[in-house]
Amino acid sequence: MTTLLALATAVLWGFADFGGGLLTRRLPSLTVVVASQVIAVAVLGTVVVATGAWREVGPQLWFAAAAGLVGPVAMIAFYQALALGPMGVVSPLGSLGVVVPVGIGLTVGERPGVGQIAGIAVAVVGIVLAGGPELRGAPVQRRAVLLTLLAAFGFGAVMALISHASTTVTGLFLALFVQRVTNVAAGGTALWLSARRGRPVLPAGSGPSVLRAALPALAFVGLADVAANGTYALAAQRGPVTVAAVLASLYPVVTALAARGVLKERLRAVQAAGAGLALAGTVLLAAG
Fold it and tell me: What pTM was computed for the model?
C-alpha cells in the first residue's frame, strides 16, 4: 500500500507541475500558485464541513501550518532560481529535497534492507538525471545554487511536516485545509508585495477574463497538488518514510514523460537514462 500511495503521489505531483508549467506561460507564476491554492481552499473547506473534520483540531495542526508557510517560500525560491538558470542545472537540484524526509526516517530508527538501500540510491540518481542536467558548458551563479538548495530543503521539509499533521483520514482533510489556508495567506502576501513593487499580477494588456479562462486548469493544478500531499501523508504513515519519500519524488520523471506525450518534447539521452534508473530503483524498493 505504501508503494502504491507513494507512486500515486509522484503521478499527481508530476501532472500538477506539468500543468503549472503550462499555465506560467500565460500567467505570472505567483498568480498561478495563489489562484490554484484559493480553489483548493474552497474545495477542502467544503470537505472539512461535510465530513466533520473540523472536530479534530489539535496541536498536530501546527505541522500543517508550518508546511503551509514553508511551501510558498520554497516555490518562490525555486522560480527565482529557474529565472537565473540554467534550468538544466536548477531543475535536477530541486529534486534533492528527498534527502530531508529520508534523513528524518533514518534518524528516527528506520533501517531499510540492502535491496531497499540500493533502490533508494538508484532512484535518487534517476530522479536527478530525469531533470536533464546540463553536464558541461553551463555557468551557474552562486545565488541560483543557493536558491535551489533552499527550495529543495523546503520541498523536503513540506513532505516531512505534512506526514506528521494528522493520524486519521478526516484529520488529514483538516490538516490539508490548514496547510492551504496558510499557503494562500503567505502567497497572497507575496503577490500583494509584488504588485506594490510594480510587477504585473496578470499579463500586460489582459483583464480578469484571462484568469477566468484558466480556471479549469488552475483547479486541476491546485487539487492535484492537494491530493498528492494527501496520498504522500498516507504513504508515510503506513510504511517506511525512506521508501515513501523516494517513490513520491519520482514526479520529475512523470513531468518529463507528460511533456513528451503532450508537447512532443524529445527526451534527452540523460533524461531517458534517468527515467530508466528511476524505474529500476522503484522495482528494487517495491521488491524490498
Answer: 0.82
